[in-house]
Design a protein that fits this description.
about 325 residues, FAD/NAD(P)-binding domain, 2 domains, seven-stranded mixed β-sheet, five-stranded parallel β-sheet, 8 helices
Length: about 325
């Protein structure tokens, strides 16, 4: 492609869709490149997941999101964002992974698996769900280990260990137990996470208290064997019989991709990218960041309801640049 676009948006999740809408409303020439399906991360969420946010807080550009309950589920969200993208005829290329992006003199060259693009600006809104935080223990690469939970059916009548104490770990533990799987939670801290959904936390605490779900606190897995898992606890090492390990210890953005683009990251293991909060432009001129990727390792800081505003902030900044150049 020889034509120089105004914007290439990398990532077709809710924030990428919001950025596309904002660019279209301002008559900017843009394209969205998404490596998977539309809202790929949401598509890979657990089948029965319910959002923490209410539907109106997940809306884009004041387009109504009507759900059966105040807090929508995964399927309702997929349908909403699909309708937003299709009814507004947004220019989104699905299943087109970006391989590299490089800043030239006055434009970026973006190379995907299918084409090459030239653009004056880039918006990176790739989220964080694709790269799990690993346990880094022997046996983590065994087939019985997963870092994602889709549904409980494979785990019924099995001995399952759920690692973690966040919303995803708690939801998985409860659903597996209700479907007839044996569940032991391995929790690194002294309790279930404080940010667990307020209507779910009492449920998991009651199941643990009554012994339906076992919880080992202040513990970490040290080795995963074929039929056992070795766990380090304050009382010493214990070994449990095990069929499956569901390690839901969180996810992280693709920092390597940001660094390849020249984006500076903070130190002290937080990896917060360098950007202007007033414009969302990074230290690389013309390269903008939107959504959860702005939080580095603090993936709880940004989510759909408080980062959808990034779209209009970025689009306004780009339009202002265009106007300055024209004048």
């Amino acid at each position: 492609m020889n034509k120089v676009l105004d914007v290439v948006i990398i990532g077709g999740g809710p924030i990428g869709i919001a950025c596309a809408l904002a660019c279209k409303k301002r008559n900017l020439e843009y394209v969205v490149l998404e490596k998977g399906a539309l809202t790929n991360s949401l598509y890979n969420y657990p089948l029965n997941m319910t959002f923490f946010s209410t539907s109106e807080k997940l809306e884009i550009d004041n387009i109504p999101f009507i759900s059966n309950s105040p807090k929508p589920n995964r399927d309702e969200a997929l349908e909403y964002y699909r309708r937003v993208a299709t009814s507004n005829e947004l220019n989104i290329n699905l299943f087109e992974k970006v391989i590299s992006a490089e800043k030239k003199e006055d434009y970026f060259e973006v190379i995907s698996e299918k084409s090459t693009y030239k653009s004056k600006n880039i918006i990176v809104c790739t989220g964080f769900y694709d790269i799990p935080k690993l346990l880094n223990v022997p046996g983590e690469d065994r087939p019985k280990v997963t870092h994602y939970f889709k549904e409980a059916h494979p785990y019924i009548m099995q001995k399952n260990i759920v690692v973690g104490a966040s919303n995803s770990a708690v939801d998985a533990a409860l659903e597996i137990w209700r479907k007839g799987g044996e569940v032991t939670m391995v929790v690194r801290g002294p309790d279930i996470g404080e940010r667990v959904k307020y209507w779910v936390r009492p449920d998991i605490m009651n199941r643990i208290e009554e012994g339906s779900i076992k919880a080992i606190y202040n513990a970490e897995i040290s080795e995963i064997k074929e039929k056992e898992v070795v766990i380090q606890t304050p009382e010493g090492t214990i070994t449990l019989e095990n069929d499956f390990v569901i390690a839901l210890t969180g996810y992280r953005p693709n920092f390597e991709f940001l660094q390849s683009l020249g984006v500076d990251l903070s130190e002290e293991n937080e990896y917060i990218p360098n950007y202007n909060e007033e414009t969302m432009e990074s230290n690389v001129q013309g390269l903008y960041l939107a959504g959860v990727i702005c939080g580095g390792m603090q993936t709880h800081k940004w989510f759909i309801e408080n980062s959808r505003i990034h779209a209009n902030i970025i689009a306004d900044s780009i339009v202002e640049k265009v106007n300055i150049l024209q004048n």
